[in-house]
Amino acid sequence: MNLAGLLRDNAARLPDKVAVDAPEGLHTYAAVWARTQALMQWLQAQGVQPGQRVAGALRDTTDHLLLHFAVAGLGAVWVPLDHRWSAGEKAAAVAAFAASHVIADDPPAQWPVPEAGVVMAAAGVEVPLTAGDDAPWLISLSSGSTGRPKGALVTHTQMHERFISQWTTLSFSAADRFALVSPLCFGAGRSFGMAFLAVGGTVVLRPPPLSPDQLVLAINASASTAVFLVPTLMRRLLTLPGEGRLFPGLRRLLVSGEPFFPSEVAQFRARLSENLIGYYASSEGGGISVLQPTEFLTHPDSVGRASHGVELELVDEDGRVVAVGETGLVRYRGPGCARDFLDENGQAAASDAAGWFLPGDLGTCDADGYLRLVGRAKDMILRAGVNVYPAEVERVLREHAAVADVGVVGEPSASHGEQVVAFVVLQSTAGDAGTGVGNGVGDDSLACIAEQLLAHCRERLAPYKVPARMVFLPALPKAGMGKTDKKALRALL
Question: Does one domain contain both 88 and 122?
């Protein structure tokens, strides 16, 4: 099984159906397969061989999407880079993961993607697909502890299993039109974009960045039925004027990237779409758990139950399963989970012999199997020998009407080992430029607001969980997929 064969088969049975609705026009399945074949010929002309690694640092285009299938078809391995990285960051990743070829819109590049129509597949001649199956086709990058990316080697079969999980658990089908508005270099953009072409649906490619107004127009004008968004962007959508749901035609609004707060669920359902789906996933193993639309009403603080084909457990530091309701490290395994890993230097990294993967999250699980995340293991605060989970403190602060965004970290304390610090963005100052909160908010007013927030925490949290101090910012630093960059926050202490 080669992933490119899924696209080839759809071109044979759905030749005239629109596969990609892009800014430059509509592309049928017959057309995208012809273009994929052209890209395969072009890659061969550049000397790409099976097993070699091809790095791509590209903007979000139809060719970028199709290159995933073209590289897979030749049996090569795709190394996705963020085109926004500096030249030094790109070069370091290319060297670490031993990419033999680089395709980039900006330096460093060994060659650019050819203009549309420049390379055409010979009439009636197809480039044969290599055997896929358990051969790697992707190095899926995630943040390393040193700040340099590490990678999971994903095979053709494992990626296909992720598609099956999405079709089964998220009920995606050939009838859907998926609005692809997230970067293809990220796991969600890549996985969902490919999955919809593999099932025979239509990908509505609307490259980011999009303002809230542009996003609403892009989804509604294209009659999209499904989209994936991160909570940060969804919160920005809530600020748009008007009443009624912004996306009345959506059948599925997937949300992932970071936890959002139960108090926001009603707002998202009322203003965006009632068809919310919570999707907890990792770049190393794909979907972990899913929270269906009706489950948002009963378990709004949960990320749902195990996805299709996934075994999910919570364990202690010794690998023993914890009791129901106790906090433990999340671990999971399934047919889509990578088994081979590379460290920041591109060297083989240790993996679990039983196939378990630990994404680094802490959680609790109830008797019905609903998983609730309480924070990242590396972000846990140890105050006077007691564990404090930042997500819990953040959830409480987010409930206060004055708070637009919040991030909680620990800082060294001579008396307690660590103490809790909350970085807060106020509703009246969110998005202001500069290093202070601005907008005319003086020190006396901030002191008053800080005391109000602390009183709010004291009413709802144990004393050892209450922040020792508040730091006000115009905006929180964000990493990939809109997650709060806790490392950057700690650097501000």
Answer: yes
Sign of CA dihedral 65, 67, 68, 69: positive
Q: Which residues pair with 296 in a beta bridge?
A: none
Instruction: Say if residue 298 is in the same domain as residue 336.
Output: yes
For 250, the domain range is 3-372
Q: What is the pLDDT of residues 428-482, one digit of tens each?
A: 765 444 334 444 456 678 999 999 999 999 999 988 899 999 999 999 998 766 7
The pLDDT tens digits of the residues spanning 161-178 come to 999 999 999 999 999 999
- Pair 323, 406 in one domain: no
State the residue for tokens 């770049």.
283
282 contacts 310 by C-beta, under 8 angstroms: no
Number of domains comprising the chain: 2
pLDDT tens per residue, range 89-103: 888 899 999 999 999
CA distances 405 to 276, 361, 396, Å, are 21, 21, 11
* Six-digit token string for 335: 């047919």
Helix (H, G, I), strand (E, B) or coil at 167: helix
Q: Are residues 348 and 329 in the same domain?
A: yes
Locate 132 and state its tokens.
């896929």
Q: Which stretch of 11-15, 312-316, 427-431 has the lowest confidence by average pLDDT?
A: 427-431
